[in-house]
Structure formats: structure tokens, C-alpha cells
Amino acid sequence: MNAKVDNALNRLTGILPLQARQQDCSSEIKALHQQILGSFVKQGHILTREQMAAHVSDLEEAVNVLKSHDLVVFSAEGEPVGAYPFTMDAREHKVRINGHQVYAMCALDALAVSPMFGMETQVSSTCRVSGDPVTIEQSGKTIENQDEAGAIHFGIIWGAENACFCCADSLCMEMMFLRDGNIAENWLAEDPDNREIFTLDEAVEFGARFFVPLMS
Questions:
Q1: 116, 211 contact by CB (below 8 A)
Q2: How many degrees, rounded to 5, is the angle at CA 198 between CA 146 and CA 108?
Q3: pTM over 0.85
Q4: Which of 121, 112, 143 has its CA nearest to residue 12?
Q5: What is the CATH number of the domain that holds 161?
């Protein structure tokens, strides 16, 4: 095990304990949550409220639990719009899976999709510093285009955590791809107390260990 990944995993779990929150749900609501996650892969978008209702005996109770546990993000109108690692918002991190293009909440989330579902993905994003395109082809935790993508790094600004906002609208906004090691190191040096960088392989391991348990 990588101690750096271990520490980051513990830190993120302390901020957003998704697995513990999912386990705190009834078996019916946990199964609904997994159906919601799978809907992005199966149909390319999140379940509607009507579709959610087919999986539970009390939709309003399920919505209240999923919302209060920050397992599913809802719009101001009460419609489901995201479930970590996915979002219906057109964010910078696109994931191609099962013939669908979906969006990930953040760079780490994008890297977790392939190991979560055991399917090949293509992640398309940009370097937050240079604006250069980033393309990562994955099969599980394996980077298939290593020659092209191997130098990519993942960066996180831990200081972006904000207790007044859900993680989707705070910390997730500051999890990013960085084109290569030089850019990553320079970015880190600007604020080493609040920032952290990971190689692509470390980031894939980090994301997989955080998200894969949600599907078991």
C-alpha cells in the first residue's frame, strides 16, 4: 500500500464518508443509491424521480435520506442532478463509458468510474494550469495510453473544503488534472500547506479505493 494514498484516503473519507453514509441507509435505499450510480452508465443520465420511485416503497423518505447524507445532489426544484462520482452539470471532466458521455464531479471521480464498473472509459479534460487537453484511456485501474497520459498528475486543494456547502460545490471544484510533473510541482509550490499532488497511478488507486466499495 502507498502511505501517501492511505493518508489522502483517510483525509477525504473524513470530509465525505460516502461508504459509511451508504451503510447507514436501509437496504432498500442503499440499493436505490447503487441504481442511481449505475443509471449514468446504463442510460447516460441520472434516474428521474419517477424512475427512483419504482425502486422504493416511500420515495420522499428515500429522497430525504439520500439528500441529508449527501449521497445524491438535488436541484433547488428537488430533481436529482448528481451522485458522486457523477453529475448532470457540464463540468470539465468528461467520461465516455458504455457508449455514453457523462460528466464527473472532479478529476478524481473521473478516474474512479472504470474501476467502479469494470468497464473501459475515456476521460477527457484539461490541465487546470495550462489549459492543454488531457485524455486518459482506462481499463479498471490500468492506464491504456500510458505513453500519452503517463506524465499527467492529479492535484487537490484541501483548503477548498467548506462546511457550508456540499462537497460537490466546494472541494470537488478544486480537484484537477495537471499536465505533467513540472507543472504539478510548480502548482504545489504556490501553496504547499493546502495543496497536494499525485501521480496518475496514485490518483487512480486513490479514486478506486474511495469509490469501488459503494458498488458492493
A1: yes
A2: 80
A3: yes
A4: 112
A5: 3.30.450.410
